[in-house]
């Protein structure tokens, strides 16, 4: 063994000399003997190098390159997230736990399988895509027009160039589906013999209805208005959602077995208690019906209106009594923008939007604001309403105060106002600052409890109310939110009702989780060098000048070619199947990768994937940024194990299982034992 | 003797003792070197310019190829500059891992230098013993990063991956046996009368010249210049670690080589302490963007590499690519000493002097 | 007739040296490998012992490159000029009781003088290559080999003084076992000086790899290079056999073939020691080499000579 010294202590100075005279001569001679002794000792030691047969310089079946592909476009389809509604949440949760949940699916409140939609559309299976989306998003045609698409926000393509146009693809799928509608719509039978009443035909009520029908219940929906749709019909302007689309989607549901009673106001025409006795369960999906109006001085003057009432009038009749008048909308949310745009369409001479937040903080979606500004809406930011100016009981203007900041350091709503006051002249003031429920008439004769503030007493995760067998869902539970959020609540209320009716016990672990994955923050993408082929399909819009005059649809829809190309952009995140996105090749500092693919609908495949090891520097950046997780390290980087003739690895080579890694030594031992046996 | 009678010899660019691809234009008077002019640039790849066209993360593999004998250092120096530029806080475990791998890298790099001192003087066996030690370090790095030369391991915000299972034990085994192995090499090489005769009094560098020419690392410390960035401009977790900085007195090849030898022993001490203090935790800063785009500005940071103070200067214009990167390479500054040190010695000593400066031409030429 | 005998002897010497070089190279590779914690050749034959059978044809078939600026005649025949004197020196080594191939009355002198002619061959090759590094190597070799002749001759002289004859067979007849302790110092001087004579480490300055690439044979390839290598191994074999006979009695220990085996065994040990030294020590510098020769080795050889003379007189 090596020389052992008890304590090897580093000297401060490393210089040392031989002493003079005889001692020095002896030391010199001894150094020669010491050296000879060291080499002699080393010769007795077992060599540290390895015997040749153990590490031959030929390509063994094991060494398969530094990188491996798990799957290939064209060989494997991706897994579609289909399941019965109650099982769906556990599927999603399992994916989340294994960190294989695609961002779009995870960030959608209803977990719509947008990845599967892109897969099917690019494969020219549009009807299947529509049905896949309808599993969770019950009205793809409607949501494909109005959704605020959190899926696109989470799309991984945001980090490379631009997100996939998931929402326009929903709409495209709906439009293409009309062709197949007669043959593919099937009626759900009431197999369980139990019936559920749903009050309200908004998105959440209809979502629950579809889920319950799928599970084999009979469903009756009560709607107080003349037609179904709830807030989709009364609140969403027709230029965003043509009414015939909504009607057709509702008609589809009716055709699938839903019983629809329109113009029946529960609590007025039929008491709630009667429904509770007639049905096995009742679901309240009534939504929020009244607008909040600030109790300002002058707020009772003629011309002060609530947003919902205004929209209901504007959407329903095309006449809201503002012809030729100046309209001031208070609020900065999406409802306020809708009000402003509707006001333009019903003939207001000037529409002004006054928001408390600054132009960067406005809560409305930026694309909506942009479209509104295009149409001629004027925005006034950072002002808070102070007083409604009235003459003879009629509105003549609004006094607003400068707002310095809206949120405090912790992010809570705590507006700070400045001193300066401004008067804005207007004839009509519309408050779009929030909504509340109107439940008094509904709940008056039942066990369902309502708080003094007029809110329903409800368990937010089981969707049960204070009365046995009565459930609630939608905005009446969650507060004002998005359509897709209401649909998600509807799905979960349906699970809850199913549990109640089948006496499936509920425990804490069964509670619905919202598996929204968290994402690292990435820097802004630099789009300057991104070629057009990689960019998102642009949605054609109607001309701003013309569209602002009537309720024609603003978004015109994608063409078939555009939609197919857009769907092919999907990276199929976490599917572990290479889609040939070429980002690995683009990242590679050494240009060692070559990727090509063929986008023929129905036969999409990777035509080329090559790794040139002579160029590869094993930096690993390609595998790190692979969006699908298909490209992985094998841990085999030692060039000595490759034959020089085979330095370029094609897709077939890279698909093979390399079996263990050299770096961990996992099969070095296996190899050694094999070598030992051979000798 | 007049200049006309001098023999001009090209040592390199392809020569066993140029430690890469350097050409030394030597004017000989008999065997006495009258002038030795290193001609560099044979390994120039324009790395600083290439860095301007890559994202901050993509530059890391480039820095591997600066000092290819000690890739971890350039990784680290670059990452420190990026972290300073972008204001990234590195988790403590990552800092400890960085210290551990860089001290192991110092051992690996010095083994190359000490081994080549042996090879230059004809003692090839010492070279093999040194490489036996280096191989063990490289094996450790292979388990860590997958490669044996260009590791791409230290990344902005932390390190590429956590230590694999069993790595700490393997590392402890290595540092436990290393000092004794170093003493064996010391006896075989620096204790040997012939080696002493070949290295003592050769290429004497005075402390004054060492400072004046910007020498750093073992070259400066061999001359007794007591300067070590790990101690004198403490960075990372070095203040928590106890170590000695060995110094030479004469500034000759012998002192330079032996400073390296004892630094290896000290590195073992540092690694042992760092392994003891290593706590579980993340190895990458959280919430780090995949495409870094630091605010416009500039940053310089330096570390004590095996060759001296290695600095990286970065300028950002706010985009995702560095606007400018400059590397202050210790090997370049040290190599400049060669004409002065080699003059008056024989051709045989020239290669020993060149070896004792331990230049790595990837870093000299960049 | 003598021409035929000479041809026979010459062929025998070439075969002996070539075979010895084949075994020697394999043995050196094994020894150096074990010293350096390696395995050495191992693929062909047991422990790689047939590796040289593959290497020799390779060398034979390699292209025989002559540099354009070389002096073609000198360049081509320099290897022979190096090899021939060393092959000749084998003639006077006593292998058998009372017998040496060329049992000349001046045999010992022949052994000391003739191999030195190879210095000329080295100078031929150095000059003929027309290469600065080769020239430097050649000049180094000339100075070194001429200088180390002196202590080497003095060391051998001490045995001659004891034996009282320059004829190898007579010298061996006179050999007694107690000569070993008396001439041990002489053997040390002979050993070191022989290493310098055959240009091996730590005295391999003429071919110093790290400085002169390969010194005087830097431009040689193929079979001509192989002849240089054979000359080096031939010198090693000749020096070892001669030293084994003169300083350790060689075949005198046992009668007949067994004695020959002992002789070769001792020589093999000496060769192994030469290799051991080469793979242990660094190389000296030119001036240190000369200083060592004249201030250490030559005085030691003189001390040995005086000792031998005193012992011889006392007898």
What does this structure look like?
The complex is a heterotrimer of chains A (about 675), B (about 375) and C (about 325). By secondary structure, chain A is α/β, with parallel strands linked by helices. Chain A is built from 25 helices and 20 strands. Chain A folds into 4 domains: about 120 residues, Alpha-Beta Plaits (2-Layer Sandwich), CATH 3.30.70.3270; about 150 residues, Fumarate Reductase Iron-sulfur Protein, Chain B, domain 2 (Orthogonal Bundle), CATH 1.10.1060; about 170 residues, FAD/NAD(P)-binding domain (3-Layer(bba) Sandwich); about 140 residues, FAD/NAD(P)-binding domain (3-Layer(bba) Sandwich), CATH 3.50.50. Helices cover about 35% and strands about 15% of the residues of chain A. In chain A, a hairpin with a 2-residue loop joins strand 11 and strand 12. In chain A, helix 4 crosses helix 21 and helix 14 packs across helix 15. Chain A starts with 20 loop residues before the first helix and ends with a helix. Chain B has about 375 residues and is of the alpha+beta class. Chain B has a single domain, classed as Cytochrome-c3 Hydrogenase, chain B (Orthogonal Bundle), CATH 1.10.645.10. The longest helix of chain B is centred in the first third of the chain and has 29 residues. Helices cover about 70% and strands about 0% of the residues of chain C. Chain C is globular, with a radius of gyration of 19 Å. Chains in contact: A-B, A-C, B-C. Chains A and B meet through helix 1 of A and helix 2, helix 5, helix 6, helix 7 and helix 11 of B.
What's the number of domains of chain C? 1
Give a quick account of the main beta sheet of chain B: strands, pairing sense, barrel closure: 3 strands, antiparallel
Rg of chain C, rounded, reads: 19 Å
CATH architecture of chain B: Orthogonal Bundle
Amino- and carboxy-terminal Cα gap of chain C: 43 Å
Q: Using CB atoms under 8 Å apart, which protein chain pair has the greatest interface?
A: A-B, 49 and 62 residues
* Major sheet attributes of chain C: none
Oligomer: heterotrimer
Which percent band covers the strand fraction of chain B? 5-15%
Q: What's the overall geometry of chain C? A: globular
Helix-and-strand structural type of chain B: alpha+beta
CATH homologous superfamily name of chain B?
A: Cytochrome-c3 Hydrogenase, chain B
Q: Tell me the structural class of chain C.
A: mainly alpha
Summed up, the helix count of chain C is: 12
From the N-terminal CA to the C-terminal CA of chain B, the straight-line distance is 39 Å
In round numbers, the mean pLDDT of chain C is 85
Structural Rg of chain B: 20 Å
Strand order of the largest sheet of chain B: 1-2-3
CATH topology (fold) name of chain B = Cytochrome-c3 Hydrogenase, chain B
């Amino acid at each position: 063994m090596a020389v052992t010294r008890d304590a090897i202590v580093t000297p401060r100075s490393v210089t040392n000399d031989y002493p003079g005279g005889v001692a020095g001569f002896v030391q010199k001679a001894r150094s020669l003997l010491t050296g000879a002794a060291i080499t002699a000792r080393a010769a007795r030691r077992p060599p540290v190098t390895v015997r040749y047969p153990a590490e031959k310089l030929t390509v063994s079946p094991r060494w398969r390159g530094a990188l491996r592909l798990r799957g290939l476009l064209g060989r494997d389809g991706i897994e579609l997230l289909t399941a019965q509604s109650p099982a769906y949440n556990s599927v999603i949760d399992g994916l989340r736990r294994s960190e294989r949940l695609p961002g779009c699916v995870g960030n959608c409140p209803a977990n719509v399988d947008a990845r599967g939609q892109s897969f099917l559309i690019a494969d020219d299976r549009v009807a299947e895509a529509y049905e896949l989306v309808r599993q969770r998003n019950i009205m793809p045609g409607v949501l494909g027009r109005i959704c605020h698409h959190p899926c696109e926000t989470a799309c991984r393509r945001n980090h490379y160039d631009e997100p996939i146009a998931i929402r326009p693809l929903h709409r495209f799928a709906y439009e293409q589906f009309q062709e197949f509608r007669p043959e593919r719509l099937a009626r759900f039978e009431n197999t369980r013999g139990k019936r559920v009443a749903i009050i309200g035909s908004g998105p959440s009520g209809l979502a629950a209805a579809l889920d319950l029908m799928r599970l084999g219940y009979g469903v009756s929906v009560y709607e107080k208005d003349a037609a179904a749709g709830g807030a989709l019909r009364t609140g969403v302007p027709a230029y965003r959602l043509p009414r015939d689309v909504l009607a057709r989607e509702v008609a589809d549901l009716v055709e699938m077995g839903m019983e629809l009673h329109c113009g029946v106001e529960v609590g007025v025409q039929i008491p709630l208690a009667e429904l509770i006795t007639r049905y096995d369960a009742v679901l309240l999906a009534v939504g929020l019906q009244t607008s909040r109006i600030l109790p300002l001085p002058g707020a009772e003057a003629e011309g002060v209106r609530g947003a919902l009432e205004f929209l209901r009038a504007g959407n329903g009749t095309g006449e809201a009594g503002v012809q030729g008048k100046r309209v001031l909308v208070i609020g900065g949310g999406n409802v306020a923008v809708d009000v402003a745009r509707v006001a333009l369409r019903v003939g207001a001479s000037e529409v002004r939007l006054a928001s408390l937040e600054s132009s960067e903080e406005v809560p409305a979606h930026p694309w909506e604001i942009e479209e509104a500004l295009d149409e001629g809406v004027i925005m006034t930011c950072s002002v808070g309403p102070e007083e409604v100016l009235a003459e003879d009981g009629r509105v003549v203007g609004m006094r607003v105060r400068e707002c310095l900041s809206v949120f405090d350091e912790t992010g809570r709503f705590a507006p700070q106002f400045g001193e300066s006051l401004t008067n804005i002249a207007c004839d009509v003031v519309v408050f779009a600052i929030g909504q509340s429920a109107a439940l008094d008439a509904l709940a008056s004769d039942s066990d369902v409890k309502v708080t003094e503030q007029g809110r329903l007493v409800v368990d937010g995760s089981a969707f049960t109310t204070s009365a046995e067998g009565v459930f609630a869902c939608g905005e009446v539970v969650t507060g004002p939110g998005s359509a897709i959020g209401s649909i998600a609540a509807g799905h979960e209320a349906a699970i809850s009702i199913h549990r109640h009716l089948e006496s499936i016990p509920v425990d804490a672990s069964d509670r619905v989780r919202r598996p929204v994955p968290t994402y690292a923050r990435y820097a802004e993408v630099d789009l300057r060098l991104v070629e057009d082929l990689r960019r998102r399909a642009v949605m054609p819009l109607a001309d701003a000048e013309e569209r602002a005059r009537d309720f024609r649809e603003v978004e015109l829809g994608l063409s078939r070619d555009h939609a197919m190309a857009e769907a092919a952009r999907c990276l199929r995140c976490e599917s572990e199947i290479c889609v040939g996105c070429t980002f690995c090749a683009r990242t590679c500092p050494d240009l060692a990768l070559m990727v090509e693919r063929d986008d023929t609908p129905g036969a999409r495949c990777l035509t080329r994937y090559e790794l040139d090891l002579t160029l590869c520097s094993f930096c690993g950046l390609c595998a790190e940024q692979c969006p699908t997780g298909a490209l992985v390290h094998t841990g085999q980087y030692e060039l000595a194990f490759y034959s020089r003739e085979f330095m370029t690895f094609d897709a077939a080579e890279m698909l093979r299982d390399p079996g263990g890694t050299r770096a961990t030594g996992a099969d070095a031992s296996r190899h050694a034992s094999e070598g030992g046996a051979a000798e | 003797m007049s200049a006309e009678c001098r023999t001009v010899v090209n040592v390199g660019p392809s020569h066993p003792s140029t430690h890469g691809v350097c050409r030394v234009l030597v004017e000989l008077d008999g065997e006495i070197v009258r002038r030795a002019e290193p001609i560099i640039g044979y390994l120039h790849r324009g790395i600083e310019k290439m860095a301007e066209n890559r994202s901050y993360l993509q530059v890391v593999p480039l820095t591997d190829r600066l000092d290819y004998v000690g890739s971890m250092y350039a990784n680290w120096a670059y990452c420190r500059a990026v972290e300073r530029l972008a204001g990234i806080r590195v988790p403590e475990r990552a800092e400890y891992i960085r210290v551990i791998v860089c001290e192991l890298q110092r051992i690996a790099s010095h083994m190359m230098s000490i081994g080549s001192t042996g090879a230059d003087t004809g003692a090839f066996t010492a070279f093999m013993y040194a490489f036996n030690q280096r191989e063990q370090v490289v094996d450790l790095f292979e388990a860590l990063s997958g490669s044996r030369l260009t590791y791409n391991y230290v990344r902005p915000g932390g390190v590429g991956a956590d230590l694999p299972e069993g790595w700490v034990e393997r590392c402890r085994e290595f540092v436990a046996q290393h000092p004794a192995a170093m003493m064996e090499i010391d006896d075989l090489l620096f204790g040997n009368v012939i080696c002493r005769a070949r290295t003592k009094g050769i290429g004497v560098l005075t402390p004054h010249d060492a400072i004046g020419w910007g020498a750093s690392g073992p070259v400066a410390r061999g001359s007794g210049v007591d300067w070590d960035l790990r101690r004198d401009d403490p960075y990372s977790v070095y203040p928590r670690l106890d170590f000695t900085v060995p110094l030479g007195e004469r500034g000759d090849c012998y002192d330079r080589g032996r400073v390296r030898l004892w630094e290896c022993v000290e590195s073992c001490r540092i690694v042992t302490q760092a392994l003891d203090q290593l706590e579980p935790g993340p190895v990458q800063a959280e919430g780090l963007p995949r495409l870094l785009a630091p605010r416009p500005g500039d940053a310089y940071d330096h570390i004590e590499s095996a060759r001296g103070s290695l600095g990286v200067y970065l300028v950002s214009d706010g985009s995702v690519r560095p606007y400018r990167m400059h590397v202050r390479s210790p090997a370049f500054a040290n190599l400049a000493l060669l004409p002065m040190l080699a003059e008056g010695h024989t051709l045989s000593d020239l290669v020993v002097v060149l070896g004792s400066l331990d230049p790595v031409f990837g870093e000299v030429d960049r | 007739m003598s021409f035929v005998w000479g041809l026979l002897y010459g062929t025998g010497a070439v075969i002996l040296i070539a075979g010895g070089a084949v075994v020697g190279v394999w043995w050196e590779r094994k020894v150096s490998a074990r010293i350096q914690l390696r395995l050495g050749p191992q693929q062909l034959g047991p422990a790689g012992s047939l590796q040289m059978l593959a290497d020799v044809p390779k060398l034979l078939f390699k292209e025989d490159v002559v540099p354009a600026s070389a002096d073609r005649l000198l360049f081509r025949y320099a290897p022979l000029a190096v090899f021939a004197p060393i092959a000749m020196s084998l003639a006077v080594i006593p292998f058998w009781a009372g017998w040496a191939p060329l049992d000349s009355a001046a045999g010992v002198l022949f052994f000391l003088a003739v191999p030195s002619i190879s210095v000329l061959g080295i100078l031929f090759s150095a000059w003929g290559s027309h290469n600065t590094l080769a020239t430097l190597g050649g000049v180094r070799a000339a100075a070194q080999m001429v200088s180390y002749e002196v202590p080497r001759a003095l060391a051998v002289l001490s045995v001659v003084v004891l034996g009282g004859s320059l004829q190898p067979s007579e010298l061996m007849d006179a050999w007694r076992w107690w000569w070993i302790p008396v001439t041990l110092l002489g053997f040390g001087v002979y050993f070191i000086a022989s290493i310098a004579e055959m240009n091996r480490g730590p005295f391999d300055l003429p071919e110093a790899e790290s400085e002169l690439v390969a010194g005087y044979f830097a431009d040689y390839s193929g079979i001509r290079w192989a002849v240089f290598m054979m000359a080096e191994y031939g010198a090693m074999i000749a020096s070892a056999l001669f030293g084994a006979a003169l300083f350790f009695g060689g075949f005198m220990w046992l009668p007949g073939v067994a004695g020959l085996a002992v002789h070769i065994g001792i020589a093999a040990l000496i060769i192994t020691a030469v290799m051991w030294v080469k793979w242990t020590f660094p190389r000296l510098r030119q001036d240190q080499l000369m200083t060592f020769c004249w201030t250490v080795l030559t005085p030691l050889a003189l001390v040995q000579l005086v000792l031998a003379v005193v012992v011889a007189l006392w007898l």
